[in-house]
Amino acid sequence: MNNLLIAALSADAGLPLGITEGGSWLLRNVWLIPLLPALSFVLILTFGKRMPHGGSELGIAAVGIAFVLALLTGIAWVDHRDNSHDQEVHVAVVQFDDHGVGHGDGSEEGHGGGHPSLAVHRTAIWFQAGGMEFTVGTLVDGLAVMMLVVVTLVSLLVHVYSTEYVHGDRRYTHYFAFLSLFSASMLLLVVSENTLQLLCAWELVGVCSFVLIGHWWEEKPNSDAALKAFLTNRVGDMGLLVGVTVLFFAAGSALPGRFGSFSIAETNALASSGMLSHTALLVASCGLMAAVMSKSGQFFLHTWLPDAMAGPTPVSALIHAATMVVAGVFMIARLYGVFFEGFQIGGSSINLMAFIGGLTTIVGACLAFVQRDIKKVLAYSTISQLGYMVMALGVGAWTAAVFHLFTHAFFKACLFLGSGSVAHAVHSFDMKSDMGGLRKHMPHTYRTFMIGTIALAGLPPLAGFWSKDEILVGTGGWGLLGGTGGNGAYTLMLGMGMVTAALTAAYMTRCVYLTFFGEFRGHGEPHESGPRITVPLWILAGLAIVAGFLNLPTGFQLAPGSLQERFGHYVEPVAGYFPAITHATPSWSLAIASTLVVMGGIAASGYYYFVKVEAASKAAGTSLTELPDGPTTRYPVVAMGYKLLDNKYYLDHLYNGVIANGTKGPLARLVYRFNQQVIDRTVDVVGETAVKVGTVVYDRIDQLVVDGAVNASGRASSGMGEELRRVNSGKVQSYAAILFAAATVLAGVLIVIV
């Protein structure tokens, strides 16, 4: 059955899915990868406290083995993807008669314009209910393999880094247990075969993030941040439930003899083939988009993400680089057939997903400017970059979005772990009060942080440049001096992306200056971190340099053809469950323009901090972080803008002050008053009335009427008995007189009646 491809079920014609139950042992048993960290979770909780290193060695070993398996799976996938072109692959096609009975009609060679189907698919029965069988299984393609490598690698580095960062913590064992479960949950989500399984993994990711964000729950801000993350994600998850439910029944309406389907491959194939109602797809896409907005920090459900920095820094790195927040982006990429048709991405110029993503890029970048906390700068940067990914998916640039997810994982993890290294040295995350001049004291942290910053800003030749530029090209909104194209003319999204590129370069220049330049403003003597912190930093920095070369644009003269579009070749699905998208062509003019924009952002911010602020610091004889008479003091409009950003667009005030406090305050008082004055008063009146009615019944009816009648009948009976006793004297003449009188009365009655 190695080359037997499973087909989706169609009422009209066979609909090849492009999935096989064949493939190598590694591709068919990929479920072992999430199983390993899940087992380590159980073992750490059971035996961790009795082990020499508190159970951290179990977590590192499990994730390390999972990483090796992920790499081997990636190698197996490359072989599977390349060699399948040389094989004769047959697609089993199933058609249905009027009774919904399937009949094989032979086979077709190839799929999708001669390309063979490649995804490896395995299922087993999970449970049965209502006569239906629900399955659990794995769907392995280039997207899943890429995510497996990224998640296991970042998780492994975070595990190693954490051994020093949380050393001596009172819940050291508990921390590593849930770090393992967090990784296992994300890995399970990545390989999920159906939306029901994906939903379970999605919720597990949310629960683990709640536990890890609130790791130091003794401090109220930390527990509040964990609750905020949990509750905000529950708001979006209602949309996920709606979307999954709508897709289940929509698929059922297109599959004869089937009540519904949770299969991701089937649902995507049905959507891409036009067999599902556009209304159903639009409703499902909007519901799923709500889940993406909460989980992946899109405007206006992004407010939990900066507060989540209350957790340990390694957790922040894992959340922002490889788990949780990228889960929403992954879900869009996995269910892209649904979104592509639901939002009608092809041939358009704007849609809900593209607009939300584009707006989020600017919203997050602007908020990063006014932060004192280095981790919050990076948190808002993550929000902005997630917006980039969602925008790319919204304009049809699927490969660009996934490639940016790939490159972003490395340089953002590098930056977060770098911020943790700095904070570990100065015992604070406040850039303005406790940092400055650290490049002299922490050379390894400084160099790796600079590499991550350049990659994030999008300067060539580091990784962020290639993925960012591919997203801008994918908008199709340039068209100057050749290149671009794509799935529509998303000119507005191109403008948003350009603005964000400049803002990103500017706020990261500010972050670098406040952290590593000027004079040290903290206390004590900062020092470089140990090798368990710096080695992961250098690994991630190295990947931030070279990762971009995995997807060099087609026609790039400086690279051989074998290195061009390699990432897209292995990661983008070639199967029936993936929509037919158009790929934009590279544009040198756009690459040059975007680079100039980035350099302009660096120059503007650099002039302000490295020239103006530095000169003011020397004149004042102290290390300043802002100009005493800066734009916010001289221009009222700028001051208003700063206040708006400092208050985070007043969204927290809306959610906490208006909605939450409105629920706890006026609304709660109104409900209490209604309960006291309406519900309780009604119950009291009913009770009082019942008492009064009972008193009347007892006094008037029971005592006077019922008891009176009974007593009267008793007295009458007693009197009659006395009289009868006198009459019953034993004399015959007395009985005869009574009988005669009775006969006379009876005769009279009969005469009257007759």
Structural class: alpha/beta
Give the neighbour order of strands across the main sheet: 4-3-1-2-5-6
What's the total helix number? 28
Mean pLDDT across every amino acid position: 86
Beta-strand segment tally: 6
Show unreliable segments. Answer: 1-13, 85-115
**Biggest sheet record:** 6 strands, mixed
Separation of termini? 106 Å
Helix proportion range: 55-70%
Estimated share of beta-strand residues: 5-15%
Overall outline: elongated
What assembly state would you assign to the polypeptide chains in this entry?
Answer: single chain
Question: Cα-atom Rg, whole angstroms?
Answer: 37 Å
Structure, explained:
The chain is of the alpha/beta class. Helix 15 packs parallel to helix 19. It starts with a strand and ends with a helix. 66% of the residues lie in helices and 6% in strands. Among the domains are: 240 residues, no CATH class; 88 residues. A hairpin with a 2-residue loop joins strand 5 and strand 6. The N terminus is likely disordered. It has a 6-stranded mixed beta sheet with strand order 4-3-1-2-5-6.
Descriptive labels:
single chain, 754 residues, alpha/beta, 6-stranded mixed beta sheet, 28 helices, 6 strands, elongated, disordered N terminus
Chart the SSEs and their pairings.
Elements: E1 4-8, E2 15-20, H1 25-28, H2 32-47, H3 56-83, E3 90-96, E4 102-109, E5 119-129, E6 132-140, H4 142-165, H5 172-191, H6 195-213, H7 220-254, H8 264-272, H9 278-295, H10 304-307, H11 313-321, H12 325-334, H13 336-342, H14 352-368, H15 374-394, H16 398-426, H17 431-434, H18 443-457, H19 463-474, H20 491-516, H21 531-546, H22 566-571, H23 588-620, H24 631-634, H25 636-646, H26 651-664, H27 666-727, H28 732-753
Parallel strand pairs: 1-3, 2-5
Antiparallel strand pairs: 1-2, 3-4, 5-6
Helix pairs in contact: 2-3, 2-5, 3-4, 3-5, 4-5, 4-11, 4-16, 4-21, 5-6, 6-7, 7-9, 8-13, 9-12, 9-13, 11-16, 12-15, 12-16, 14-15, 14-20, 15-16, 15-19, 15-20, 16-18, 16-19, 16-21, 18-20, 18-21, 19-23, 20-23, 26-27
